[in-house]
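Bug #77: duplicate submission created two jobs. Keeping one. Sequence:
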Amino acid sequence: MELSCKSEYAILALLEMATHYNSGEPMQIRQIAAQQNIPDRYLEQLLATLRRGGIVKSQRGSKGGYLLTREPWKISILEILKCLEGLDVRTYEEDINPKTVDSSVVEEIWQEASQAANSVLQKYSLQDLCEKRDSRRQLDIMYYI
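Kept job's structure:
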């Protein structure tokens, strides 16, 4: 399992928005892009997808921008990835496409790995990522002093 560039950029943008969540002020695309070093045009597309997925909302006007729809601790990383990458739903039609014992064993292991990954991703929220980042920044500061 690999994190796509699209998902990484989206999570970084949402992390930036989570950091500013308590201010209640919407963040503009150029602010987020500058802070996280994400191309503006690409970020615009990602935020549109996240808006359709109900993770962010947009606000029009001179003070407009994007806001999280919920508190950062209520948005899981799994929810973000499902919104961006789509659901990995497979339909198993045993009668049409009979499986060998070998392929069934491989499929079972793959499903178990997928469930374990989903469990970990569901466990972490945007708030958890903010806290991990902040604690690492503290360690970096202490290291340099």
